[in-house]
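Quarterly update, task 2.4: pyridoxal-5'-phosphate-bound model.
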Amino acid sequence: PTQDRVFNFAAGPATLPENVLRKAESELYNWRGAGMSVMEMSHRGKEFMSIIQKAESDLRKLLDISDDYAVLFLQGGATTQFASIPLNICKPQDPVDYIVTGSWGDKAFKEATKYCKPKVIWSGKSDKYTGIPDFNALDQNSDSRYLHICANETIHGVEFKDYPTPAALLVADMSSNFCSKPVDVSKFGIIYAGAQKNVGPSGVTIVIVRKDLIGDAQEITPVMLDYKIHADNNSLYNTPPCYGIYMCGLVFEDLLAQGGLVEVEKKNIKKAQILYDAIDESNGFYRSPVEKSVRSLMNVPFTLEKAELEAEFVKEAAKEKMIQLKGHRSVGGMRASIYNAMPLAGVEKLVAFMKDFQARHG
Ligand code: PLP
């Protein structure tokens, strides 16, 4: 029963919209008269074809993706894309630039060193990843094949609000803010995202890639990483993550029904605002380390002035059915992930709890 559900602030896999889960439940055993679950269908049958095609066309509507781009539903997580990107669009000697605003950008950079010649042109590490560079001061290599950014750093809570102009192509990891707000896809060569934060269960990785970049992969590229193979086969070269794609499709329908990403962004701004306000107005009891102008709407890390209270905070919150508030093991503190599917009521409950906790322990 839905009244038993918790408010789940996990960074991913993360909470999904309740109405999407209910819809999936209602067609779990018999998908729309097919007499079987989506999990049991042939990925080449007409039923699943209709599911994947609808998912793609709804995603195209949501992000206003033009025909110049292919939309791929892949496996392997965003982590696999750290390798796929250089393998598909670089030669081994090609220089490429990385802006590193957190741990994920750093991982992407390190993986790329195996397949091309990446350079970190800006790193926020010395400031503990709390900011975004001044775009005018970026020293991009004019021969760089692409400029890679992580649009939202899930662990550090740093989000690009605007994008740098690349020397050639802009490539973005949008795993943790995918479909949380409108994005001008035409500014990017490649956008990629694991589904398990904003748009579905883990197991699906979405890649939006400009079609003219497809078809020139390095010779060593495994078939499973080659965009051309997947684009030519409409993401059905091998058995895709069928059920995950179906769930993503239900989420896309739900986002469209909410009025699309302009409306979704308004809700996300409101949720983030009340949480950051609670932190900023706590007289230092809670602190957000991130520079105000680039604070993430999705992942809100914060610390307690009295660090010794952090375990108690997590424990008491869990008792009140608010779970997964512990910060990433690499940075400590707290983190509240408030993706699209986190209701306003969840954030309001967290803020009320934070005030009460401060009153009792401040
Ligand atoms: N990039 C970002 C921004 C992430 O948050 C994550 C996972 O949390 C990843 C990449 C890695 O994604 P996956 O676990 O799907 O490989």
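Highlight for this quarter: Residues 12, 77-79, 104, 150, 154, 173, 175-176, 194 surround pyridoxal-5'-phosphate (CB under 6 Å).
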